[in-house]
Amino acid sequence: MIQRFYVALLMISISIAMFSSNSITIAQKLAVRLMGQKQADRIIFKEIDSDTDKFILYSNADKIVIAGNSTNSMAVGLGHYLKYICLTNISWDRADDIQLPDKLPVISSPITRKAIVENRFYLNYCTFGYTMVWWQWKNWERFIDWMAINGVNLPLSITGQEAVWYKVWKKLGLSDTDIRSYFTGPSHLPWHRMINLDYWQGPLPMSWLRHQENLQKKIVKRERELGMHPILPAFAGHVPASLKKIYPNAKISQTSSWGGFKDKYRSHFLDPEDTLFAVIQNIYLKEQTKLYGTDHYYGIDPFNEIDPPCWEPDFLNKVGKKIYNSLLCNDTEAKWVQMTWLFYIDRSNWTAPRINAFLNSVPHDRLILLDYFAENTEVWKKTDSYYGHKFIWCYLGNFGGNTMLAGNFAETGRRINYAIRNAKSITGIGSTLEGIDCNPIMYEFVFDHAWSPLQNDYDWVSSWADRRIGCKNDANREAWHLLVDSIYSQSASLGQAPLVNSRPSFSGFGNWTTNPNYSYNNEVLGNVMKKMIEATDSLKHLPDAQLFDMTNVLRQYLSNRFLEIRDSFTVAYNAKSLDNAEFLANKMKQMLNDIEKTVSLHSYFSFGKWIYNAEQFAKKNNEREYYRRSACTILTTWGETPQSLNDYASRTWSGLVSGYYAPRWQMFLDTALCTLRENRPFDKDKYIKTVTDFEREISEGRISLSPKNNPEKNPLDVMRKILYRYSK
């Protein structure tokens, strides 16, 4: 008996030692990837005991010690040291250089930070279409590292699920053609996964399924190594229309229409009360676990932007119970993770009794809700903290990957702090952005709120400004405080985009998807540019992060000026002042050229890179055009033309400006001037047909855009000239 006890004790000790050693080894590898071997050799990782996530930083002789209770905590500790002590910027983008000081600075006194929330969630279904669709492992590797140093431990991990579904539908009797045609093209897979859209730009190539399967295996492996728990999908009721032929008695109904698409692209929903539902769930989870393992977190969103078959609370409660029980039968530790976007976007239908009935179908300890757009509308406040269910406060901040400067900085901080103090069932902080890195300051600010103590807002912004250029600089600090006090004072909204990206019109904007309006004084951006140029002039080299910021600010400044000039052009047109209208039209055309020149200064704002990355997935000659079309469509017409989502994912990117937005404005301005010269009314219907035909040709790949990627050797000089040209 005693011998068994000592053997058991020895095995436990060995297992702890192995875990500890492995955890430290993984943290060391992370440091090498971010810092290089030489600098990483000065970092020592240690494990400490703690009931909650915690890290401690201190210097020991010429070494930097990072102690944490887990790999994830060590990663956050490393991130804190690099960002706040070394003043180093680390973005998610692999192309961005990481600039470290030649000599790593010592830590004058120990730094301790402790997580104040258990969960730090990241990503959105849409992100996998608007940003990640064309990523390879090299992109994911850097991104996962970025998540780790920012404390993310609950990432949405939905890559490669079509490979699982292919196996499921094969087992249930569907043909290869039925299955691959049911899937959408790559860019639109997020909306297929959310039960919004089927068959659009199918069939999906088999090579895509194989590639994504292999990629997902690498993604979840690395996420787990760094202390994360990937949230994998589970069956939510979405089935191919052709399944009805094999199971004619199954309770399959067509979902409500979505996004302006034709009926043939509508999805189909299997009633969870049908016995087939549990069968499909069983097959799917077994196949998925076989390929990708499980951390027992499952993303399930049965009614996102679609109507349930019945709105009765009893029905909604039964649906929730059936879905949960189908999970439980396959995984006794299963936790259901659901976004609550539907409770916001369809709030007239999702009344309190319906929400309560649906949520209370699942035990409180088995459901985690994502308060999806909390910087705008906090659903937890409207539902008595989700009737006791756990939730994660989420900052959205971006729609469609649009390139608009926006974000309610101070208000976001206040809302997070209030929720942590007052929401009885809050379990985490997160972000549900649709596109990545358009306003990076907001996302790092949000994740920093998960750890205590937090700097006050003023000091935090100063620190952010310092690490964007790698040193303390008063001018750069002033620039960022100007931005935070003006531009970053209003929540990002649905359908934001600069007027440049909008279908041209005399007033307003072409569609709800491209609202260019802003509430601040645009000259603030001009002053910000001057401050950033002043700061950069004092540096030996131009840091990549600073170039990104300056490009972004100047792009927005010019875009806002474009709106002002368009309105002046309309006044001249209505007054039948031909000379003035011609002058302003030429000014707008010049500005479009200057916007193109501005965004070409940084490779991030490159349509060429987007297209190139898409084409790399082609295994056959005919596939190159297929992937190119998918990449073009999502950023232009989005889907069919004309339809409601036109330009929703617009980007002020080099190549898109010169090849798509500028030609549309050229058509509009030339048509308008022609009517003035000939003294006849503007034929709106004819113009709309012309521009719609052009958009369709672009989205279908019949007109090839010329991707631009020719950065200038002296970007500062270019910026100075352009800023001077348009400064008031």
Structural class: alpha/beta
Overall CATH architecture of the largest domain: Alpha-Beta Barrel
Separation of termini? Answer: 88 Å
How is the biggest beta sheet arranged?
Answer: 8 strands, parallel
Number of domains: 3
Q: Main sheet: which strands, in order across? A: 6-5-16-14-13-12-11-7
Q: Which CATH first-tier class of the largest domain would you pick?
A: Alpha Beta
**Fraction in helix:** 40-55%
SS elements, strand count:
18
Mean pLDDT: 94
Instruction: Provide the β-strand percentage band.
Output: 5-15%
| Low-confidence blocks of residues | 1-20
Shape: globular
How many DSSP H or I helices?
Answer: 28
The CATH superfamily title of the largest domain: Glycosidases
Q: Please compute the radius of gyration using only Cα atoms.
A: 27 Å
What would the CATH topology of the largest domain be? TIM Barrel
Notes on the protein architecture:
By secondary structure, the protein is of the alpha/beta class. It is 50% helix and 10% strand. It has 28 helices and 18 strands. The strands form 4 sheets. An 8-stranded parallel β-sheet has the order 6-5-16-14-13-12-11-7. Helix 5 (137-149) runs parallel beside helix 9 and helix 23 (578-599) runs antiparallel to helix 26 (656-677). It is globular and about 75 Å long. The relative contact order is 0.08.
